[in-house]
Every structure is written in structure tokens, then in C-alpha cells.
Specification:
Radius of gyration: 21 Å
CATH superfamily of the largest domain: NAD(P)-binding Rossmann-like Domain
CATH class of the largest domain: Alpha Beta
Strand order of the largest sheet: 8-7-6-9-10-11-12
Oligomer: single chain
Helix content: 25-40%
Number of helices: 10
Structural class: alpha/beta
Length: 306
């Protein structure tokens, strides 16, 4: 079995992990690439990868978001693309979302401002029953976030392209239901992939559908949100705060207004880091299943983009 590893970072650690789990495989590490490989294991694939290497059996994306891989020139049409499913990311995403929701619910930014100003101004306790959290995305990550927020006692709603039941959450499906979904939540947590249908989804009009003083958390993809429209909504007070982990350009350019906006908490794409051991376990198990002629989950629908 010939395997090509093309990972933009931590290539040595990835190679060690796969060598331990695929003992019979010959593993080449980009840019040292054979003309053919049975499997390609990639993250931020170089533009000439598929021009140089013919991949015969499957291409594994070493992360959850596949938009960058689907845009690589020459991606072979007849070879299945597989994404990571959880691999330790769901727990991290649940932690990140819970932190952002609790920060909004408990008025953490208010108290930080008051501390800096030397003021003692306690606020009345909010009624959690009136603080509904909405999840944009109802997949593996969305369900993990929902479980955590349910334990914390928050009422939930979930929106997705097609109906997906989430225990304890009111379900909204389809673009026609996006407005009533957004109007019903105090915090919107975006976990959607980047697809033609989701890019720019949260623009000025749709942000205005949120209740005044609502909060936005984006841990999905940076292009879900129109940056200028979000900044305008924050400046006007229409949106109370935003927590952002993903951006259209990463690293975020130093001149970008997000860096110093008082209404934004930003983190550098750390909400759910890929964990090498868990990811290698999952990929190796799927390769073994493919070799046995068995079906595997996580195959990307290229038309949908996930």
C-alpha cells in the first residue's frame, strides 16, 4: 500500500502516527511524492498535488472543513474524499461554545469594562428561560454543543439545510426558516461549513433578524459572516457582542478592524484543534475498512461541499 502524506504542519508527527497504525504501508511525505499513491492524507494541500500524484483509492482530509481541499486544481472526480468525523474536536467545540455563551449570559464583558473604569455596578440576574441559544449547524459538532448547553440549562434551537433532530432543541430547516430561527435566539452559534449556500449567509439583512442586543459566535468558517456588516451591527448596538474564531483570511491581517473592536472577542482558530492520535486512529480504521471492501462514513458530498 502506498500512502502520500501532505500536511502543511506537524508532518513528522503525522508520519509517526500513521507509520504506527499502517505498518504495511509505504508512506511518502510531500514534497517527496510518488507518481501514484493508493491513499492521500492531506491538510492544506499544495496546488500541484494532483498534477504530480495520481491517487487511486481515497483522499482523506486531515480536518473537518473540506472547502480548501475541494478547491484544489485537479482533484480527481472519481476518487472519494473523506473528512474527519469528530476525532476529539466535538468536545473542544462544546467547551468553546459554552464559554462564549456563558460569557454573554453572565455579562462578562460588562464587568470587565466596569473593572477597568473602577466602577461597581452589579446587574440583575437574567432569566435563563429567556436566553435561548441557536445552533447554525446540526451535525456532529452541533450535537456535542447542544448536549453541553442542555446540561447548563439553556433552551436551544437548531437550524440546518435539512431537518436534523437534536434532543431538547427546536428544529428549523431550510432557508425559509432562517428568519424565524434567528429572531428566536439570544445567542447564535455558527458551526456551518463553507459551501456556496453558506458563504455570506450572515449579512446585514440576516444579522438584523436577530433580536436587538443578541450575540454572535462564529466557530464554523470565516466566510459565513460578512465582516463589514457585523462591524456595522456592533457599532450601532444592534449586536451586543461577537466571539470569532474563524476569518476569511488567516492569520488575520494586522489592519483588520476585528483586532481592536471593543465588541469582539477573537481567538486564532483554536475552537477545535485537530488531534493527531485520534485522527490517525480514525483514518487508519477507514483505510482498513476500504481495503476489506467495506463501506465507510464521512464521504464528502462534493455538490453540497461537506
Amino acid at each position: 500500500m502506498k500512502v502520500l502524506l501532505a500536511a502543511a504542519a506537524d508532518a513528522d508527527r503525522w508520519r509517526e502516527a500513521f507509520a504506527a497504525r499502517l505498518p504495511g504501508a509505504t508512506i511518502a511525505v510531500w514534497p517527496d511524492a510518488p507518481p501514484e499513491a493508493d491513499y492521500a492524507l492531506v491538510w492544506r494541500a499544495p496546488a500541484d498535488l494532483f498534477a504530480r500524484v495520481r491517487v487511486r483509492r481515497a483522499i482523506f482530509n486531515l480536518g473537518a472543513g473540506v472547502d480548501a481541499l475541494l478547491a484544489v486544481p485537479g482533484l480527481p472526480a472519481g476518487v472519494p474524499v473523506l473528512r474527519l468525523e469528530d476525532a476529539g474536536m466535538a468536545e473542544q467545540m462544546a467547551e468553546y461554545a459554552a464559554l462564549a455563551v456563558l460569557r454573554a449570559f453572565r455579562d462578562a464583558e460588562h464587568y470587565a469594562r466596569e473593572q477597568r473604569a473602577g466602577r461597581w455596578t452589579p446587574l440583575p440576574r437574567r432569566d435563563k428561560r429567556d436566553f435561548r441559544v441557536g445552533l447554525l449547524g446540526a451535525g456532529v459538532l452541533g450535537r456535542a454543543v447542544a448536549r453541553t448547553l442542555t446540561v447548563l440549562g439553556f433552551p436551544l434551537a437548531a437550524w440546518s439545510r435539512t431537518p436534523h433532530a437534536i434532543a431538547g432543541a427546536a428544529v428549523y430547516a431550510g432557508i425559509e426558516s432562517l428568519r424565524p430561527f434567528l429572531a428566536s435566539v439570544r445567542v447564535a452559534v455558527a458551526l456551518l461549513p463553507s459551501t456556496p449556500a453558506t458563504r455570506g449567509l450572515l449579512d446585514a439583512e440576516r444579522l438584523s433578524w436577530l433580536p436587538e442586543g443578541a450575540h454572535l459566535v462564529n466557530a464554523g468558517r470565516g466566510d459565513l459572516v460578512v465582516d463589514a456588516d457585523l462591524v456595522a451591527a456592533l457599532d450601532s448596538g444592534r449586536i451586543a457582542s461577537a466571539t470569532l474564531d474563524v476569518y476569511r483570511a488567516e492569520p488575520l491581517p494586522p489592519e483588520h478592524p476585528v483586532w481592536h473592536h471593543p465588541g469582539i472577542v477573537m481567538t486564532p482558530h483554536v475552537s477545535a484543534l485537530t488531534r493527531i492520535a485520534e485522527s490517525a486512529d480514525q483514518v487508519a480504521a477507514k483505510i482498513a475498512a476500504i481495503e476489506r471492501g467495506e463501506p465507510v462514513s464521512g464521504v464528502v458530498d462534493r455538490a453540497r461541499g461537506y
